[in-house]
Every structure is written in structure tokens, then in C-alpha cells.
Design goal:
The protein has 321 residues and is an alpha/beta fold. The chain is built from twelve helices and eight strands. It has helices at 2-38, 40-54, 95-102, 127-141, 154-165, 195-206, 215-227, 229-235, 237-240, 269-278, 294-297, 299-311; strands at 58-64, 67-75, 80-84, 106-110, 147-152, 170-176, 256-261, 282-287. An eight-stranded mixed sheet has the order 1-2-4-3-5-6-7-8, sandwiched between helices. Helix 6 packs across helix 7 (215-227) and helix 7 (215-227) runs parallel beside helix 8. The N and C termini lie far apart (105 Å).
Length: 321
Amino acid sequence: MDRGRTVGGRVGILLKIFTFVCVVFGVALIVATWFFFMRPLTLDSWFSRFALGAAGLEHKQGQGPDGRLSWFEGGTGDTTLVLLHGEGEQAGNWARVTMPLVERYRVVIPDLVGHGQSDPAEGPIGIDQVLAGVEAVMEVSCRDRPVVLVGNSLGARVAFLIALQRPSQVERIVALNGGPLRLADPQVNLFPSNREEAQMTMEGLMGPGAKAIPDTVLDDLVRRAQTGPAARLKEAAEEMDPLFLDDRLDEVQIPVDLIWGSADQLYPVEYAQRLKEGLPAARLTTLPDCGHVPQRECPVIMVEALLQVLDKDPPEAPAGP
């Protein structure tokens, strides 16, 4: 009888464990389904950050002028690549090109201030705050190391401004579909208010040949456009004006490589040509049929182009008369 009670007790425990596992799995499935349909961009961010870890980068946190700073770092090499994402994005935006980079370089990828897991979580975000955050990460992770700043969109503009402040530390700039010149007449609405406008926004960023975006993603884009980091940057837009370099490009004495998705209608190739003509030492590499965010849209050809320009000698200023 005692043996029967023991067996019955074990069966009861196993049933409780099985029931608990089923409940946990069911809750997890419900949560995952909700995020898949209601917050697909958040889900994508989680997966992309996980991919950074899978590529060998360590997630780190520290204190900056506005609170917590978050970044990833890893890889080996004498030169450090600091990868700067665009507005509204986060460090995982670089996940698709990280693996081949960490094999040859040390890589540091910050969440820009007010993005990802970097504070502040609320309120306007000024460009001066973004610059201070990147510099704080560099003080911790890149002290006394030469760096190459690789920036996309807003990150490209930040790269130029950081280079002006740290000319002795920054070896080169690589700008992807972004820079420090004003967009006089933007052809893409970055703040859509409905699905139709969001689809047009994506076509403008990715090119007219872009595939249709699922409605769930478009809805999430609309939500983020109203409340996310890009909207918070817009609140402080007036403070950004003094930090454009339209009449000061000649001050950027550091060599610059421009890698450009040619299908981008927000920062078209003409914008890249203006940069090339105004910078003392710059060259342009275009990526056909690629849009505003090459590291996500066409990661294979983008990382090939990046490694090729880094393997070459930096561009030089043309000889004088």
C-alpha cells in the first residue's frame, strides 16, 4: 500500500509539473502572438539584439549624462568600428552585418540616447544629447583606440560631428545614406498617420520596387511615428539647426567613404554627390537597388562594400593646382 501511495504521489507531482509547463507555454504563446500582430517591430528588435549576442558581442551598460547607456561590443583587431544606427532604430539594426565584421575588427554598437535601452525613456531628444551619449560610450570602450565611425542616416550625421570633436581619435568616417547637410525638401514623410501613408513611407525609403509591407507592421510604424524616438527627436528639431555643416564641410579633414543605397528617395544619390563635392577627401560607392538602410535591406553587398573600402587606403584630397 505504501508503494502504491508513493507511485500515486509521483504521478500527482508529474501531473502538476505537466500542467504548470502547459500553462507557462500557453501564456508564452499568447504573449508571442500578441506581439507578432500588435508589436511586430518590438519583436523584430528583440530578435535582432539576440543575434548580436549570437555573433559574439557582449551587452554592456553604463552611466551617461542622461542616465543609463546601453551598447554591445566584441570582436578583435587593432581598429575599432563604432556602428551608429539611424533615428528610431537601435543597436540590433546592425545584426545582419555583424558576423563578418567581428572576425576582423573590434566592434562597438551603441543604442543612441533615447533609443533601445539607453535613457532617457521620455521627453525630447536633442542632437547634443545623442553626441554626448556616443562620446560617453567611446570613453569607456574606445579609450586610446583609433576608431572608424560607421553611421547610417542620423548615425552618419552624428559620425561627422563626433569626428569634428575628436579628430585625433577618428581615423575615418563611413556614411551610409545620411550626413550633416540639411534636407531642403524631403520627399519622404517620416511621420505617417495611417497605413496608406506608412506604405508610401516605406516605398520612399526602400525604393518604388519595395514589396508590400504587412498591415500589422504598417500599423506599428504609424504608432511609432507618433510616440517613438523619431517623434521625440522632432520635438527638439530647432536645436539641431546650428549643428548642420552645409557651409562647413571643408572643416571635415578626416577621410570619408560614402556607401549609398541608390533607391533611397529620402537621401537620394544627389545628396551623396553634394557631400562628395564639399568634403576635402571623399569617395562614393553606390549600391544598386538598395534603399535607405543598406545594412538591413541588402546586408551582403553592403558589408562587402564596407570591407572593400576599409581594405583600401583612405580617400585623399585632390592635389591643388
